[in-house]
Each structure stands twice: as C-alpha cells, then as structure tokens.
Design brief:
heterodimer; A: mainly alpha; 72% helix; globular; B: mainly alpha; six-stranded antiparallel sheet; three-stranded antiparallel sheet; 9 strands; 5% strand
C-alpha cells in the first residue's frame, strides 16, 4: 500500500477516534477489504492442519494500513477495536454465504461412532453467535466489545485492557462470563 | 435482561466458577435470589468449560486432513506401519519404536485435527505422568502422547494382540463360571486404577481385550477424561457435545446428564459389560434412538432382569455381536447342554444372585451402586463360593437360608444347643437335683450346656461376625447365650471360670451394641450396662484368682475398663467414673510394667491412658496439663521409642501425643487472644503448636512413603498437611499457609468425589473450606471469606443431614455461624452480624443438648455477640447510640456468663474468665 494512502487511513483513524462518524464510515470498508484480502491469501497458501490466526491477521492489517510513524499506542488500540468489529463482519458474512451455499443438504446429526468414542468437530455457528452478541450488547455493551476483540480479533487480554482502559483481570473475568453466557445461548 | 440483573448474575457466576461442580450447587443454594437467576447461572456454569469460543473462528476455514497419508511417517519415536481402524474422531495405527535401541510394537491413536489441538496437548502433558504411572499387567501402558509436527494430537499405547472380551467369550464358548472369573480379572485392573484416582469413563468390550493366553488388557485408561475436559462440558446437561465423549450403550445416567463422573461411573459400565457377557444383550436397546430417547431409556426406565433378558430376546451368547442385538437362529446351537446357551428357557443360573449383582451395578443413582469395583468383584466372588451376596435385598430369610445352606451341620448343632439349654434349665433346674446319680447326670448335662453356650458365644458368633448385616442375628444369639450362662452361673455358685465366661459373653454383647464404627446397632446405653456387668464379674474373678491366673485376670480388667471408659466418653456420661477407670488402668499397667519393663504394648497402653488424663487436665488448665504431659506422657513415649523406635505402635503413639499437645498449645494461644493478652503473648504458643504439627506431619509422611497403599495412612498424612496450613496462619505466616490450605481442600474434594457416602470426607472438606475462609478473612478479603464460610456451612449441614446426631458437625456448624457473624462485624455490618448470632443462638437452642459441654458452646455464641456489640459501641460517635450498644453487649455477656457458669465442665472456669473480662469492660463503659 502506498504511503499517502497509508497516511490517509491513519488520518481517518484519528478523525474517527475524535468522534467523526463519517471518517469511521470511510475507514471500515478499507479495513474490511484489507482483512479479507489477507485472509484469503493466507488460506490459499496454508498447508493442511494449519489454521489462520486472527490476531496475526489483524496485526498484519494494521501494519499495512496504518502509518507507523504518526500514531501512538492509543491509535493502535483504537484500530484494533475497529478491526475486531470488522473481523466480525467478515466472518459472519462468510458464514451467511456458506449457509446459503449449503442449503438443502439438511442438518448433519451427531455421529455416534462406536469404534472411537470421540466427538465430531463442533464449529460455532457464527450467525447465532452474532445474534447472541447483539443481545448481550443491549444490556452490557462494554462486555460485548470484549467478546468482539477476544473472539473475532484474537486480541490478548492485555491488548483488550489497553483498548478499553480496564484492568487485565477485569477483561479476563468479563471474557469468561461472556463466553459462558454465549455458549449457553448457543447450546 | 436488565443491566442490573446481569451484573448480579455475573457477580455470582464469578464467585462460583472456580469451585468444584458439586460445590457450585451448594454455593448457589446459599446465594441465589430466585430460581430463574439460578437456572441462568447454572446454564452458564455448565457452559463454562466450553472451549468452542477459545478456538479462532478462522479455524473453520482450514481444509481437512487425511490421516491415511501418515503411514510410513514418524510420530515421536514411533514409525507408523499401518492403519488399524478409523473412526469419527481419528484413526488408530500400528507403529514400531525404532530409535536404534530396541524395537517395540505400539498402537498410535491420532486425533483428527481442528479439535482444540492446544488444549488437548496441554491436558496430555498434565495427565501423561498420572496415566503413565498405571503399571498393571491388565492395563495397556500409555507410552507417549503429544502433538505431531502437523499439530495433530496423538497418544501411543502398548500394542495388544487380542480380541475384545465379548468376542473372546463367544469364540471360546466360555462357561458361566469362566466368564465370571474373566470379569473379575477386569474388575481387578479397574480397581487398581481407581486406587490411583483414575477413572476410565469409557469401559466397553472394544476397550477390553483378551490375549490368546487369556490375559485381560484394558485400553485407553483415562483418555476419555483428557478429551472430555478439553471439549466436553460444553452444553448443559446431556446434550450432544458431551454424548460424543462416551459410548451411549455403556454410558451411565450421570454421563447422559452431564453430571460428575466418578468411580461409580465405571461400576455402571462394568455392569453393562457383565450384562452383555452373560446374556448377549445389553440392558437397554438404544439402536436407532434419538438422543433424547436414549437419555430417557437410560435415565428413567429399568432394564429387564438379566435372567429375563435371555428369555425375552431368545438370545444365545454364542450369537451376540458387539454392536447389535441379534435374534438367535435356532439352527446355530453349538452347545445345547449348557444352560446358558439354551435359547428357549430363562436361565436359572442368572436368576437370583447374578440378577441382583448386575442390577445393583446398574442402579441409576451412583450412591446405590456398589461402593467400589472391588465390592462388585467380591460379590461375584461370594456368589461363586456360594456365600450370601451384598446385592441381595436384605431379608433375614435370605441370609438365614444362605447361612443354613453353607453351614448346615453347624446350624443344626446350634439349634440343638438352644433346645438342650431350654430343656436343661426349665425342666430340671440344677439345685433341685439331689440324688447322687442324678447329680452326676445333671453335672454332665450342665457341662454340655455350658460348652454349647460357649460355642454359641465364641465359635458361631465369630463365624458369622463378618457376614454383612449380621449384627441383629448376633445380638440375639449373644443375648440368649449370655442369659443361659447367667442362669448356669447363678446355679453354680462361685464357679470363677463360669463367671468369666459370662463376663466374656457380656463383653461381646456390649461390643455389638456400642461399637462406634462398623456394623453396630448404636445402642450405647445397652453397651454400658453390659460392660458394667462384665466389669463387676471380672473383678470378682480377679479377687478370687490364683497367682497363675492373675495376669489373665488383670488383662481382662484392663480391656473391660478401656471399653467401658470409651463407651462412657461417647455417651458423655459419668465423668467421675471415667476418671476412676483411667486411674485404675494406670495403676494396673504400672504394676505389670514393673514385672515386664520391656513390653512395648503395655508401655503404649500406659501412654494412651496417661494421654486421656492429660487431655482432661489440659482442658481445665493448660499449665497443669502441660506439666502432666512433661512428667508422665513424654517420658513414656521416650521409653517406647527407646524400645522400638520404628514400630507402628510407637509411631502411632508419637503422632497422637504430639498432635494432641499441638492442639492444646494452639487452643491456649487462642485463649490468650480472647483474654486480650496481646498477640505477642500468644505467638510462642502458636509457634510451638506449628512445630508439633510439623513433627507429626513428618512421621505421617514417612509412614505414607513407606506404605503408599495404606489408605488410613494416606488420609492421616493429608490431614497433617491441613493442620500445618491452619497453624501457619495462626502463627502469623498467613501467605505461606495458602499453599497448604489449597492442597488440603483439593485432597478432600478428591476423597469426597471418590465416595459419595464418605461422611468423614464431607466433614473434612467443610473443615478445609473453613480454613480457607479464615485465610481470606485474615487478608481482609471478606467476599471470598464469606463464600468459603458458606461452603463450609453447607458441608456441615450435609453431614448433619446424613447423621442428625453428629456431635462434631453440630458444634462445628454452631461455631461457623458465630464466626460468620464475627466476620460481618469485622466488615462493619452489624445488622448482618446480628442475624448470624441469632441464627447461631436459635440453632444452639434447637440442636444442643442439656449436656454441660454443649452449654459451654451455647455460652460462646452469646459471648461473641456481646463482643461484637462492644466493638460497634467503641466505633459509634453518638453517645446515646453507643450507650444502647453497650447495654446490648452487657446483656449478651451476662447471659453468656449464666449459661457457662451453669455448665460446670473442666473448661468452665477458663471460659468464665474470658466472659467476665469482657463484661467488666462493658460495665466500665456504661458507668
């Protein structure tokens, strides 16, 4: 990415941070496109058995999008929070598309295998999760942000703590209870 | 959901999340405001272990793997040589170890990728050591485990060439007896693992192989736990996720419901395996059922009796297959002689004992199954020997029937004895016989009656003593026999030998009625009466005994005094009689020791007796008691250590003496604090107590290391860890204490989880929670302190629910309520504190007896309430409010003094000093 574009994104980020809604609207698609691009490039090159690391993705997007010389840590934190929200969109959209593609196949029931009594792999239904997360945001928006950053962007507790200005132990606790609540909703 | 309600839910969830599952219930009982909230939190707790949200959602985008491509590759030190089987979660390969040193065949199980790789690897590292410690000829060894370079979790097991146990039985056409013997071999291996606290969780024929040599090998021990702890626990109760971790056909109701898995789970699965081995069918036919239908079948319906199952299904064992029930085809009958293979009739060999054994193993409630795999195995062993089994509904007729079948000659003889006795006494009457000839005849009959009565008391009684639930029969037997002996003794005048026999019968009767542990009838009053009678008889015998008989007479007296003394202690009756008995024992033991100074047993008995006296003195006055210890007990202990330093008896004495002394030192430290003598004055006492407990722990540890399979030793060692934790805290080393206290709790939780009926473990767990509460309280972390206090309280309540007369637990609960009150007072919540004191006082009124020791406790509640009011009065700025609080304080303290003064125990003066000191302070403030 060219330097001036990078400076442009950085500028948008600053403005968005300052509360400029229009800047945020402009910024999100850029981040979205970048994340998607990185994800599909990585997937194409991956060997079997390896998976993408959300946090690596977000970090790479950050490095590519933001001018490192003109931002301080708060910008970085703010970018992460935006990236997390964006990642959520990327993944939920992906899930919606995949479901559309699979429609008609019917739901696979649990395979109870006698030879090896272990479960089939279980994936989180991202669409249900997205809905549950919206409900959580209604009565605890801050906690919903924690989930976004932890789950969709793979940020560490320290990073989330930095973004939200809370202690690490609070983030850890909030993440645990949110996870439990969400898992219970999805069950 | 409102934000407020959510905050409340989060708060409770945070506090409950780190507790063990069974503790969570207890905790929720105590804190949950309403059922809806509780359900919400329970669902969250059930989902707490769900790691689905820990995996990056991007993992879903990764392509699948093909395990087959692994043949020829190396995994760890093993080279994959071929594929054995493939299943839903992974594949099994044969492999050889070829790192140059030696060749070893192994089986490598590879788990499909994407399954929370990292979490599994972590658990494997954690569990591997434990699993590798399973060294048993009938358990396939875990050789290695970890994650391949490609991120696939794997584990390597010893390669076993053999057939699944059901195939093996079928192919060899084993007889019923051989099948049972083989099954007992399986039980032996499972019991071995249980002793190491490892539960299999997934026992089924395909995990139980039998080698061509007939040797059983269990596969995958503990593996299910590794997997399920990482991915299991996801959805609440009995939903698909957890089900995947087990094999429904062999899974217990608690597994279906997603509840805690214990050794009882393996008992259940073994029950299914046995059912299948003996009938060819499974207790529930789950083929083609939906999940919820399976759950209902297993958790709500009862299985057909095994003997019935054969008839119902018309199944022959020779036709059974591991996966499906099959209808027998009449043409394929290979062994028509064997009843077990007869497709048409019910099987008389299974009817009765084996039905009962299997159904007991298959009980829905874990606590109603066999308490252990050993018990299951033993019952089968008993059945094979023709002895009565435990699983049988406990009717007298059944037991008597079994007893008679096995001991036909002996029972006949015993019945004859009773007839002879009745005839002898009622028809003739000893004194009525005058004529010489008749006298001789009567003498002969008298001797016979007496011999037979003695046989009843000794031979027959002892022969049935170990039968389960034989106490009522034994009591009856002994009562009748001792009544006959009594009559004979009265008629025979001063026959000392006969008197001694009566005394021995009475002693045995007392033993049955009053034994605190084991199969007793819990009739302490009856026991005391019989012991007193026996003591009087033994005394008569001793007075009339010749020199040669003296040692035996003394021995009899020592024993009966000891038994009588402890029965009185248990009943908390007649303290003066108890003291008298102790002094008599000390005197007699001293005499005996003068003659045989090197006798270790006598020495230890003397020390034990001195200890009882010393402890009584210590309760009344620390210095006097301590002096007694120095003068009498410690020298006796030193003497025992000189005679036999490593003898088990010496070590037991040592730990007993040191820990008792430790408790009293700590008690004295607490008293000094209560008397407001200052922390400096108390510290040396706490310090000494700690030293004594550390010394005790060292002895226990040595014994435990020497004999790791001794459960009592293990328990003692573990409880000495608890003691060190408690007393580190008292000695002011609060931070250091945490590690010990946490370990103490973990140990006890493990024990309690291991055996649901282990009341002592529940009590000890409650005790451990209390210690942790005190720890948090010392660190001013009141929220944690209260949570732990609540848990402790709930445990004591569970003990009391199981045993309403559990004196220790009742006292403990009372003290807890008071301490929780005190803690609320410390946290400046007078109203709440007050409500706890009230609860305590109410509980004291309801549960304590009028017995003096209990009155002292009731007084302590009032004292604490009085002290709390005083504390708040001191903080109050308004003069009037302060005055009102002082008045309340004084009123409570006066009540405390009244109650305590009326109690008149050894401790009363000490307790009164504490109360009066507070009262004086209070009255000064009012004046």
């Amino acid at each position: 990415m060219a330097d001036e574009s990078r400076q442009g994104v950085t500028g948008l980020l600053r403005q968005a941070q300052g509360g400029d809604r229009a800047a945020l609207d402009e910024l999100l698609p850029l981040v979205y496109r970048e994340l998607k691009g990185i994800a599909s490039r990585q997937l194409a090159g991956e060997r079997a058995g390896h998976t993408l690391q959300a946090t690596a993705l977000v970090n790479e997007a950050y490095l590519r999008l933001i001018d490192q010389h003109s931002v301080d840590w708060r910008n970085r934190a703010h970018f992460f929070s935006i990236a997390a929200e964006t990642m959520r969109r990327v993944l939920v959209n992906h899930a919606v598309r995949r479901r559309a593609g699979k429609r008609g196949e019917g739901q696979t029931l649990l395979a109870l295998d006698e030879a090896a009594s272990f479960p089939e792999r279980r994936e989180v239904d991202l669409i249900l999760l997205d809905e549950a997360l919206n409900r959580l945001a209604e009565f605890d928006p801050a906690q919903a942000r924690v989930v976004e950053m932890k789950f969709f962007a793979g940020l560490s507790n320290a990073e989330v703590a930095e973004v939200l200005g809370r202690s690490e132990s609070t983030v850890k606790r909030e993440w645990r209870s949110a996870k439990a609540w969400l898992a219970a909703q999805l069950a | 959901m409102t934000p407020e309600r959510w905050r409340e839910i989060k708060r409770i969830f945070d506090a409950a999340a780190d507790l063990a599952p069974r503790e969570q219930h207890v905790f929720l009982d105590s804190v949950c405001p309403d059922p809806t909230t509780r359900v919400e939190i329970e669902r969250m707790l059930a989902a707490d272990l769900d790691t689905a949200l820990d995996e990056s959602p991007l993992a879903a985008l990764a392509p699948d793997d093909d395990p087959a491509s692994l043949v020829g590759r190396r995994i760890g030190r093993y080279r994959i040589t071929g594929e054995i089987a493939r299943g839903g979660m992974g594949a099994v390969f044969s492999a050889v170890r070829d790192d140059g040193e030696f060749q070893q065949q192994a089986a490598v199980k590879l788990i499909k990728s994407g399954l929370h790789t990292e979490a599994i690897a972590r658990r494997f590292r954690h569990e591997r050591q434990i699993l590798a410690s399973l060294e048993h000829p009938n358990i396939a060894r875990l050789l290695d485990g970890g994650v391949t370079d490609d991120g696939l979790p794997f584990y390597v097991m010893e390669f076993v060439g053999g057939a699944p146990v059901d195939d093996y039985c079928r192919e060899r056409d084993l007889s019923l007896k051989d099948r049972l013997e083989l099954f007992r071999q399986i039980c032996g291996a499972v019991a071995y693992a249980h002793r190491r606290l490892i539960v299999h969780r997934d026992l089924k024929p395909s995990n139980i192989l039998v080698t061509p040599a007939g040797e059983v090998k269990l596969l995958d021990f503990g593996i299910a736990k590794v997997i399920s702890q990482t991915i299991g626990g996801a959805r609440p109760r009995g939903t698909a996720t957890q089900l995947g971790l087990m094999t429904p056909d062999y899974a217990s109701p608690e597994q279906f419901r997603g509840e805690q898995v214990t050794t009882a789970t393996d008992v259940y699965s073994l029950g299914v395996v046995l059912y299948e081995l003996l009938t060819g069918a499974r207790p529930y036919d789950l083929t083609g059922l939906r999940l919820d239908e399976m759950l209902r079948a297993v958790c709500e319906t009862g299985p057909p009796r095994p003997s019935q199952a054969i008839a119902d299904c018309g199944l022959r064992i020779a036709d059974s297959r591991p996966k499906k029930r099959r209808r027998a085809s009449p043409s394929s009958s290979s062994n028509p002689q064997s009843a077990i293979h007869n497709p048409q009739s019910k099987n008389p060999q299974l009817k009765g004992d084996l039905d009962n054994i299997i159904l007991k193993a298959l009980r829905k409630e874990p606590e109603n199954r066999y308490a252990s795999v050993e018990a299951l195995s033993e019952d089968i062993g008993r059945h094979l020997k023709g002895l009565p089994i435990v699983a049988r509904p406990a009717t007298f007729g059944y037991r008597a029937g079994k007893f008679v079948r096995r001991n036909r000659p002996a029972v006949l003889l015993a019945s004859l004895v009773l007839l002879t006795l009745v005839g002898g006494i009622s028809a003739t009457g000893w004194q009525a016989v005058r004529a010489e000839r008749e006298r001789k005849l009567a003498q002969k009959r008298f001797e016979q009656s007496r011999d037979l009565a003695n046989s009843l008391v000794f031979k027959y009684h002892d022969a049935i003593a170990n039968l389960p639930n034989s106490s009522p029969v034994r009591e009856l037997l002994l009562k009748d026999a001792s009544a006959y002996l009594d009559n004979l003794a009265r008629d025979a005048g001063g026959d000392l030998t006969l008197l001694r026999e009566v005394a021995l019968a009475r002693t045995k009767l007392g033993d049955i009625q009053g034994r605190p542990h084991g199969a007793s009838l819990g009739n302490t009053a009856g026991a005391i009466e019989n012991y007193e009678a026996a003591a009087a008889l033994f005394e008569t015998v001793a007075r009339g005994s010749t020199r040669a008989d003296r040692p035996r007479a003394t021995g009899d007296l020592l024993t009966i005094y000891q038994k009588l003394g402890s029965a009185l202690t248990r009943a908390k009756e007649r303290p003066e009689r108890r003291r008298e008995l102790l002094n008599q024992r000390i005197e007699m033991l001293g005499e005996l020791l003068r003659e045989q100074p090197g006798d270790l047993k006598l020495r230890i008995e003397l020390a034990d007796t001195h200890t009882s006296v010393g402890n009584r003195l210590l309760r009344a006055d620390f210095d006097e008691g301590h002096r007694y210890y120095q003068q009498n007990i410690l020298p006796t202990l030193a003497e025992a250590e000189r005679i036999a330093p490593d003898a088990g008896e010496t070590l037991a004495l040592k730990t007993n003496v040191l820990s008792k002394l430790g408790w009293h030192f700590a008690e004295q430290g607490r008293l000094l604090i209560e008397l407001e003598a200052g922390a400096d004055a108390a510290r040396p006492y706490f310090g000494r107590a700690l030293e004594l407990f550390q010394e005790t722990a060292k002895v226990y540890e040595r014994q435990y290391r020497r004999e790791p399979s001794n459960h009592i030793g293990e328990r003692r060692f573990k409880s000495s860890i608890c003691n060190i934790g408690i007393h580190l805290g008292d000695a002011g080393r609060v931070e250091e204490s945490y590690g010990y206290l946490k370990r103490c709790l973990d140990d006890n939780l493990t024990l309690a989880a291991f055996d649901a009926n282990d009341v002592q473990a529940v009590f000890d767990t409650g005790d451990a929670y209390n210690s942790l509460a005190v720890y948090h309280r010392r660190r001013q972390d009141f929220a944690r302190a209260f949570a732990h206090y609540e848990l402790s309280l709930a445990h004591m309540e569970r003990v009391i629910a199981a045993d309403a007369k559990h004196h220790e637990a009742i006292n403990y609960k009372l003290d807890l309520l008071t301490q929780i009150g005190n803690t609320h007072a410390e946290a400046l919540r007078l109203n709440v504190a007050q409500s706890f004191y009230e609860r305590a006082a109410e509980f004291a009124a309801r549960s304590l007896t009028a017995e003096p020791g209990d009155r002292v406790l009731a007084g302590a509640v009032r004292l604490n309430a009085g002290r709390a009011y005083a504390t708040f009065a001191g903080r109050e700025t308004s003069r009037e409010a302060a005055r009102a609080l002082w008045q309340k304080s004084c009123a409570e303290l006066r009540r405390a003094a009244d109650i305590t003064a009326a109690a008149r125990t050894e401790e009363t003066p000490k307790r009164l000093r504490v109360i009066e000191r507070q009262l004086a302070k209070c009255e000064r403030a009012l004046a």
